Amino acid sequence: MTTIAARARIAGYAVALGFAELRALFTPGEWLTGWLLRVLCQVIFFGLVGRSVGGGDTARYMVIGNAVLLVGFEAMFVVLSTVMERAQGTLVLLVASPTGPANVYMARGLQWVCTGTFTSTVALVAVPLVVGVPLDLSRLPLVLPLLVLTALSCYAYGCVLATVALRAPSVMWVLLNLGYLVLAMLCGVNVPISFWPGWLEHAVGFLPLTHGLSAIRDVLDGASLAAVLPAAALELAVAAGWFVLALLLTRDVMARSRADGTLDLFG
Q: Which of 4, 37, 59, 67 could be cross-linked to 51 through a Cys-Cys bond (beta carbons 3.0 to 4.6 Å apart)?
């Protein structure tokens, strides 16, 4: 029990550090104008493309998809937060600590889950008004827990990418952008997953966002939370799988870095 409490306390410190870095990175005004406005324009763009290509239904589909995608995109910033530890030279100290670095890395970017949930919520409220698509805003309280679940699933996926970036920091931007584009292209954001060949449609089910986005669409169409529990359970299972994989890969990366003496190298 003492070990569990110690790990929880260290994870809490990591979360607090993440929020402190967020405050140092952005002032509220900078975040609102430099980030939020930019991504809202991105969702508006896809909504207008949908309206010009397929009318109101297509616009609504693309607005919801791209608004929810934002929660995944921000959650994946954990790649940058994690690699920062190596850039700052603290990786060696974390590896030498009694509890190890895994619990720090699993909590290192949770601030992005919070900001991503807020960003997606704002997009779901504001963009439909701009694009002119119907959205029942009274359903948003039911959407919020699904947004958080989807964010955590994408965060776990980002943690896996972060372990690769720890080993090769020079490709962290490639990993972040490629990982994001895979979700944007395959997970039902702009086209239904049924569009893809059968084998790929099944494979997409193992990616984060897929089941969470599907559940959110159903709730916004009037379904109850009980009706979307199967999709939510699948998203939770996907999140658990990616978290376990991230934990195993983190331990492997640390062992390899100790073996070849590259713990304190960045590049």
A: 59
- Tokens describing residue 217: 């669409």
- Flag whether 267 is in a domain: no
Tokens representing 136 are 């029942």
**Assigned domain for 163 exists:** yes
Are 22 and 111 in contact, with CB atoms under 8 Å apart?
yes
- The count of domains in the chain is 1
Distance CA 5, CA 86 (A): 26
Domain of 49 in residue numbering reads as 2-259
Decide if 71 contacts 121 (C-beta within 8 A).
Answer: no
Residue 174: which of 45, 39, 242, 182 has the closest Cα? 182
Assess if residue 266 is contained within a domain: no
Query: 1 falls in which pLDDT band (50, 70, 90)?
Result: very low
pLDDT digits (tens, 9 = 90+) for 58-117: 999 999 999 999 999 999 998 887 777 766 666 666 665 666 666 777 777 888 899 999
For residues 33-63, one letter each, b for 16 or more C-beta atoms within 10 angstroms of the residue's C-beta and e for the rest, the string is: eeebeebbebbbebbbebbeeeeeebbbbbb
Residues 91 and 253 sit within 8 Å (Cβ to Cβ): no
Residue 76 is encoded by which pair of tokens?
A: 């994946």
Of 108, 74, 115, 69, nearest in space to 91 by CA = 108
In a domain, 132, yes or no: yes
| Dihedral, 147, 45, 172, 82 alpha carbons, nearest 10 | -30
* pLDDT, greater one: 24 or 39: 39
